[in-house]
Every structure is written in structure tokens, then in C-alpha cells.
């Protein structure tokens, strides 16, 4: 009789454990998220000493991607930098306190010459909470660094406005 009781107890405990394991593993397994069929594009516009306006997809996480962008640089830039260029762009805020500043980087390569690079930090940032449109105004007080293929660094002062509009679509 004792062996029968032990068998029933063992079988009951086994059934309970199997039930708990199957219920627990079902709750833990989550479906894999589907890739976003429509990535969130933004319309990025520069006006002033930096000039350009186009749709950009995937801009601008800290680790990339760094999307292609067409930019025209004004006559306030060194002669080798002026004009229209197709390159890559990076935009992001930096700093931990308000008012926070913004960083704009743009670089391109001229065949046979090498890579040109500009970086601007500063700006007055305004984000409309309702429309989610970000506007950053850069003035002569903000600094723009330029590097040419020979690693010559030139600091200039420029004025422009950046607008990121996720709602244009």
C-alpha cells in the first residue's frame, strides 16, 4: 500500500511540474517583432550658409546610419568647400542639461582629392511638442570646423537654420 501511495504522489508531482513548465515556457516565449515595413522618414531642411532640403530615412542614431544628403555650402566657406556636394549627414543633440546644444556633421569625398568634413556645434533648439517639428537656429556665435583632405582645420562662423519635420508625409 505504501508503494502505491508513493507512486501516486510521485505521479502527481510529475504532472504538476510538467504542467507548470509548459505554461511557463508558453508565457516566456514572445513572438519576434516584425520589421518595420515603412521606416520613419523625415524631411530635413537647411537654409542659410548650409542649404538643402530632402527626405532622409534613418537619421541619425549615434551609431549610424549616416544617410546620403545633398548640401550646398555658401561663399562663407573656404573656396574648396563651396558649392553643391553629395555626402553623408549626422545630426543630434548633445549635452545633458537644458539648454542643450545641437551637432551637425556633413562629409563628402571628391574623387582624386580625398574627404572633406564640416562640424557645427551649438544652436538654439526649439521642438514643437504638438507637431514634433525640431528647429535649430545657428548664428555667427556658433563655431563651424572644417577639415580638408590634407587635415587642414579652419574655423569659420556661419548662420543657418535646420528643420526636421517627421510629419511632412
Q: What can you tell me about this protein's structure?
A:
With 169 residues, the protein is an alpha+beta fold. The chain has 2 domains: 1-30; 41-165. Helices cover 16% and strands 46% of the residues. The chain has 1 helix and 11 strands. The protein has one helix at 2-28; strands spanning 41-48, 50-57, 68-73, 83-94, 101-110, 114-122, 124-127, 134-138, 143-147, 153-156, 160-165. An 11-stranded antiparallel β-sheet has the order 7-8-11-1-2-3-4-5-6-9-10, with no helix packed on it. Strand 4 (83-94) and strand 5 form a beta hairpin. The protein is elongated. 18% of the residues are buried.
Describe the secondary-structure layout.
Layout lengths: L1 H27 L12 E8 L1 E8 L10 E6 L9 E12 L6 E10 L3 E9 L1 E4 L6 E5 L4 E5 L5 E4 L3 E6 L4
Antiparallel strand pairs: 1-2, 1-11, 2-3, 3-4, 4-5, 5-6, 6-9, 7-8, 8-11, 9-10
Calculate Rg over CA atoms.
28 Å
Low-pLDDT stretches: none
Mean pLDDT: 82
**Given the helix and strand composition, which structural class is it?**
alpha+beta
Going across the major beta sheet, what is the strand order? 7-8-11-1-2-3-4-5-6-9-10
Largest sheet: 11 strands, antiparallel
Our measurement of the CA-to-CA distance between the termini, rounded to an integer number of angstroms, reads: 77 Å
Report the helical percentage.
10-25%
Instruction: Supply the number of structural domains.
Output: 2
Strand content: over 45%
Count of discrete alpha- or pi-helical segments spanning 4 or more residues: 1
Give the beta-strand count: 11
Give the overall form.
Answer: elongated
H and E order: HEEEEEEEEEEE
Amino acid at each position: 500500500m505504501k508503494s502505491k501511495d508513493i507512486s501516486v504522489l510521485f505521479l502527481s508531482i510529475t504532472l504538476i511540474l510538467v504542467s507548470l513548465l509548459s505554461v511557463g515556457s508558453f508565457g516566456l516565449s514572445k513572438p519576434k517583432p516584425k520589421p518595420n515595413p515603412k521606416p520613419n522618414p523625415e524631411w530635413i531642411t537647411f537654409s542659410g550658409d548650409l542649404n538643402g532640403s530632402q527626405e532622409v530615412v534613418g537619421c541619425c542614431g549615434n551609431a549610424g546610419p549616416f544617410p546620403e544628403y545633398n548640401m550646398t555650402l555658401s561663399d562663407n566657406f573656404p573656396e574648396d568647400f563651396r558649392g553643391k556636394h553629395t555626402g553623408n549627414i549626422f545630426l543630434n543633440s548633445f549635452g545633458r542639461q537644458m539648454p542643450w546644444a545641437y551637432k551637425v556633421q556633413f562629409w563628402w569625398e571628391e574623387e582624386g582629392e580625398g574627404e572633406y568634413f564640416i562640424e557645427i556645434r551649438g544652436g538654439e533648439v526649439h521642438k514643437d511638442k504638438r507637431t514634433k517639428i525640431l528647429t535649430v537656429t545657428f548664428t555667427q556665435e556658433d563655431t563651424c570646423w572644417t577639415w580638408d583632405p590634407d587635415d587642414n582645420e579652419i574655423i569659420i562662423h556661419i548662420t543657418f537654420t535646420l528643420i526636421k519635420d517627421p510629419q511632412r508625409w
